[in-house]
Amino acid sequence: MSTRKHGFIGRRKQAIDEFVAIRKARMKAQRDYFASEGESDPERLAAQQKRDQEFIQSLKKIGIGFIIFLIFYAILRTILGLW
């Protein structure tokens, strides 16, 4: 019965099931890597710290841009008398 051809829906379901199985295996490998016992890699910790700093810098840039936009918006609304 396994040699029987599947219809369109059967093939799609099989493809999705295979994708889910592959995804689960990747996620498990990644989870095992980050949950490893013992001392963490100094290089991995340094890379994580660098990524954190880059993320904070990007948040600062976005925050500054948003504040400038709000100030410009308030000035424009005041000039046009839309308050």
For the secondary structure, the number of strands is: 0
Mean pLDDT: 89
Q: What is the structural class? A: mainly alpha
Give the % helix. over 70%
* Oligomer category: single chain
Uncertain spans: none
Distance separating the two termini? 74 Å
Strand content: under 5%
What does this structure look like?
By secondary structure, the protein is an all-alpha fold. The chain has two domains: 1-38; 43-83. 80% of the residues lie in helices and 0% in strands. The chain has helices spanning 8-34, 42-80. The model has no long low-confidence stretch (mean pLDDT 89).
Tags for this model:
single chain, 83 residues, mainly alpha, 2 domains, 0% strand, membrane, transmembrane helix
